[in-house]
Amino acid sequence: MAGCAARRALAVGSRWWSRSLTGARGPRPLCAAGGAGAFPPAATTTTRRHLSSRNRAEGKVLETVGVFEVPKQNGKYETGQLFLHSVFGYRGVVLFPWQARLYDRDVASTTPEKAENPAGHGSKEVKGKTHTYYQVLIDARDCPHISQRSQTEAVTFLANHDDSRALYAIPGLDYVSHEDILPYTSTDQVPIQHELFERFLLYDQTKAPPFVARETLRAWQEKNHPWLELSDVHRETTENIRVTVIPFYMGMREAQNSHVYWWRYCIRLENLDSDVVQLRERHWRIFSLSGTLETVRGRGVVGREPVLSKEQPAFQYSSHVSLQASSGHMWGTFRFERPDGSHFDVRIPPFSLESNKDEKTPPSGLHW
Q1: Do 81 and 87 touch, CB atoms closer than 8 A?
Q2: 104 with 235: CB under 8 angstroms?
Q3: What is d(CA 119, CA 105) in angstroms, rounded to the nearest whole number?
Q4: Which helix (H) or strand (E) holds 220?
Q5: If DSSP codes are grouped into helix, strand and coil, which group holds residue 199?
Q6: Cα separation of 294 and 271, whole Å?
Q7: d(CA 246, CA 266)
Q8: Could you read off the pLDDT of 207-264 as tens digits, one per residue?
Q9: In this predicted model, what pLDDT tens digit does every residue of 95-114 receive, in sequence order?
């Protein structure tokens, strides 16, 4: 298209980003438009190379915030890399990478190097492949517009006091898969609005990207590694609904003369088809090493019954589970409803709940 050269401007308003960039051959401009929580239907390439605050889309003021870069097919993004989330559309910055084991049950495996098949639930072994995720900060300006699709306070921790069930969260902290990163550059010395941005990162125009880790970030990562670490990712698709689960060990607390082990788990639901579906019910089975098997049924998830459509194909949330044993596993189904009123069940891939054997003491809050 005329005027759309190799480097293009990135523009942001007060709403979602366009998903049309995914799979594009080169960097493209991005405009914000549409109603709250909606992807703009026509925010694609334009003949303008740069967009400014004088450009308007459906009454929304646009601001030039940077220039897209070509996404990396190989290698990792560095600390300080600015990006857009390709699914949820928020601006963010990479803090550091995690090397996880991805167990994809949609991929057959005959000779697994390291397989998971917890307690025989599920009929096939799955080979774990190394996959890169990133610890990131979310721009606070975008949090209100993604809250209906993805929790912005999903990374929770056990509080440091006598209440064994007390949790707290760091707002705007997330984990992002490598393929969800759409990198961009900016000339702004503080391009991301988050209370930890300048605490963790220092502007250095001689570097690329020009934001380098401060000692506070390195110390924070090291001290809180056991409670931040992402190690295993589980994925399975049923009738074009893909479920991704990431469990995290949170620590152990003593309650009524017994040990209680806590985990949080992040779940992402993605509609890979164009048909509209709505999540109606959840059905969990939770097995503890102590020998107990618990069944949990309920409406929706975290008080919601999200609709997955072509315009808004994904929903992500986090929840928690506690056991009176150092390990266990979970599996289950989500029940979805089609527009004609029919229902179908989507499998939740089985995943293990493992405690950190090396950490004898519970976390005492996030240290700086």
Answers
A1: no
A2: yes
A3: 16
A4: helix 215-223
A5: helix
A6: 29
A7: 5
A8: 999 999 999 999 999 988 888 999 999 999 999 999 999 999 998 888 778 889 999 9
A9: 999 999 999 999 854 444 44
Q: Of how many residues is the chain composed?
A: 368
Q: Cα separation of 128 and 209, whole Å?
A: 31
The helix (run of H) or strand (run of E) holding residue 67 is strand 63-68
H/E stretch holding 60: strand 60-61
Preceding peptide of 209 cis, ω within 30°: yes
Give, for 219, the enclosing helix (H) or strand (E). helix 215-223
The DSSP secondary-structure symbol of 217 reads H
In b/e form, how buried is each residue of 135-161, taking b as 16+ CB within 10 angstroms? bbbbbbebbebbeebbbbebbbbbbee
Q: Which helix (H) or strand (E) element contains residue 218? A: helix 215-223
The rounded distance, in Å, linking the Cα atoms of 182 and 68 is 8
Question: Which uninterrupted H or E stretch holds 93?
Answer: strand 91-104
Paired tokens of 44:
């694609």
Contact between 317 and 44 (Cβ < 8 Å):
no
Report the C-alpha gap between 368 and 221 in whole angstroms: 9
Q: Map residue 162 onto helix, strand or coil.
A: coil
Q: Which two tokens stand for residue 340?
A: 């004609």
Q: How far apart are CA 34 and CA 19, in angstroms?
A: 13
pTM, whole model, 2 decimals? 0.80
Which helix (H) or strand (E) is 223 found in, with range? helix 215-223
Cα separation, 263 vs 295, in Å, equals 17
Burial class (CB in 10 A: 0-12, 13-18, 19+), 262: buried
Q: Sign (positive/negative) of CA torsion 11, 17, 23, 24? A: negative
For residue 295, CA distances in Å to 112, 237, 284, 287 come to 30, 22, 6, 9
Residue with tokens 């889309």: 57
Neighbours of 39 (CB within 10 A): 21
> Is the CB of residue 79 less than 8 Å from the CB of residue 94?
yes
298: tokens are 């309920």
- Name residue 31's amino acid: C
